[in-house]
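Friendly challenge for the regulars: who can give me the structure tokens for this chain first? No prize, just bragging rights.
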Amino acid sequence: MKFIFTLVFFSIIISISAKAQFSDNFNDGDFTNNPTWIGGTADFIVNPALQLQSNNTVINGAYNLSSASTKATTAQWDFYTQLTFNTSSTNYVDVYLTASASDLNAATLTGYFVRLGGTADEICLYRKDNGSTNIIKIIDGVDGVLNTSNNVVKIRVIRNAANQFQLLRDLSGTGNSYFAEGSVADATYTTSAFFGISIKQSTASFFQRHFFDDIQVQNFVPDIIPPAINTITVTSPNTLDILFSEAVDLATSQASANYTVSNAVGFPATAVRDATNAALVHLSFANPFPARTNLTLTVNGVKDLAGNTLNNGTKVFSYFVPFLYDVVIDELMADPTPLVALPNSEWLELKNTSAFTIDLNGWRIGKSTSLSGPMPTFLLQPDSFVVVCTGSAVAGLALYGPTISVTSFPSLNNDADLIYLQSKEGKTIHAVNYKDTWYQNELKKDGGWTLEMIDTKNPCVGMNNWRASVDPKGGTPAKKNSIDAVNPDVTAPKLLRAYATDATHITLVFNENTDSTSASIAANYSVSNGIGLPVSVNATAPIFRMINLTLAAPLQAGTVYTVTANGVKDCSGNTIGSSNTARVGLFGSLDKFDIVVNEILFNPKPGFEDYVELYNRSNKIINLKNTYLANRNTSGAVSSITQVSATDYAFFPAEYIVLTKTKALLLQQFVAQNPDNIIEISTPSYNDDKGNVIVLNEQGTIIDEIKYSDKWHFPLISNKEGVSLERIDFNDTSLVEAKQKANFHSAATSVGFGTPTYKNSQYKVLDEVQGEIKVTPEIVSPDNDGMDDFATINYSFPEPGYVATITIFDAQGRPVRYLQRNALNGIKGFYRWDGLGENNVKLPVGIYIIYTEVFNLQGKTKRFKNTIVLARR
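First reply, four minutes later:
Bragging rights claimed.
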């Protein structure tokens, strides 16, 4: 019987000991056992990140969860929490270190608890005595520490053998940088039955936004370890902050002789321990820190509060001055819906491309209409990533990696936007002027997929270095991009165009971001006709594609000048080459028929888009910002008025400009001799059968109007899709429909049925009065040696609409090649014969006849015979 009693006694002791210390990191995905939590079990879940998360959705709710724990003295309590809201008097968390019962709302409950939140948004230690409202604050923490929309905190409470409590918190959540909220002696309760969490919430905006992890209750082991240097933060060119691993002694931490910095910086002039954080010391030096240089701080003789001394403690730091592209925006989610697998939130990703650790504290995200609040302290390591978003998106995105929030996170437009990254000094570090065409995928640009940068060492070339993510989730937040690759920029920048804002100011527009330093040198620019060098230059932030020149002498009306740029580099270091000039001059007013509609593609092939070509037939420089494109609605009123350019854009005499929605689609179908003269706009809708193309000035005056019809096409064209109508004579400005019909014709077969940005294939040359077929050379040798490998059959006719059939005959009169059959000709053009017969049969050497027969619908016919010799070398 005695043996049985002894066994039971030891079993009880073992059971009590097991409950005295416990830990739970929820990595098993369960909180119902090992250890067992009781109470409001329906009010909590273990989320996919393996954290304990609140799950109660009751307004003005109060709920709790507890687990057996008998540890009460000589103890240490640690836990992690994240509250993704601003705390208040009705929204806070009480974490009971010791509790006499499992029901943490019981009036008779006694024990000690840490409150996170309350009216003062603080972290405090309370004692709970018997009675429903009998709580006493025994350590009053610093006010306002939880006054943010995302609070990440690691808490540590120590109770030593003398019943001295110490409350510490680490707002980084890492447990590496504790701050002492205070200490107090209290021996009221020396036993415990439970550890627990009690939550008070008011409205739905606080539901399911409480997270807990890494809970540990254990014996307190006295400190015998000296303090260590946790972090060094450079606050100015000659000041820094040292954050120690624990609170440090006042006298030794403020002795300047205990600190020294390498590279001849030496001892600090002053050393001051922070008034509120005993682990933080501020140092001020007489000598400045050399920028972007690794320096070593050495600490000797600094003690912690337990008297442990740090000797020969060292840490490397640098005074970091951020340069352009040290941090880049390398991924962005502008259109999260329809969802693929990532959260329904807009965000962007930053990557550190430098060799230095960069503190993002005070950095911001901006766009033309807004600027975010400052980023929190976050040490972005070299070659690492962080996601930036609004506060409400942090919980979902943090599952994928490091995530920080900013207030007033700019809304990212789905189709196009300009966003930039600004350092705390207000300097633009990187900018991205994205468009939905950058996805290069019609499906993915509709939402759910991110845009990713291919090569982060090539951060400013635009579309050529971006593409839609190929990761199955739809993106790679906080990780290396799915399309990451080497994609260097080896192409020199081009000067696209220039325009004068007034007589003494010119703006240059480049095709890519320029290096702001080289672009801001006045000696790199000159203007013709005696104007010379500008007196000042300003590169427009944040992408530096527009350079503003101030001239020493004014431009004269009616004169076209040439501006030349030399020595300008892009952000990859490529220097501008031959594409370094642009015309410029003062704008003239837009009057009737100064601009005419020169070519129309109103019935594109499936998958392609309309285009309208304008021609400047005046002697004036027209501002396309004051030019509008329109159509007519079903009632005949002018409708769908669209501005040709949102910014000043010079349209010069005898120049062609093409307007279309997507430049890339136009270039896939047609050859554009001047692709830089294509402007992307959302063109008005033009019906496939008939409609009106209208050009307006800023007063709404109709400058030109074409009432087109598909019946204007050449009748023998069976499929009119993808065939443009070309103006034959741009000096014929009649608005009479019948005359307009006579002045338009289908583009020629030989130019692919369209001539965007250059002279029309059907353009009427007034001095041409007779048809002609000319073959060159007279002897052709098709041996691919680069000399006379093919014959060119040049044609010219007095009017459009001739159809040609070309047949090659041998000397015996036998047809050997049917080169063209019923091909629609322009006024001038050519065909080629490669010296081969039908089905690419190799023909014998000898004399051949090129027989050309042409006709038009008016019954006119012409026949031509040209002799050619086929030879071989």
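The longest helix spans residues 2-20. The CA atoms of residues 421 and 427 lie 8 Å apart. Your move, everyone else.
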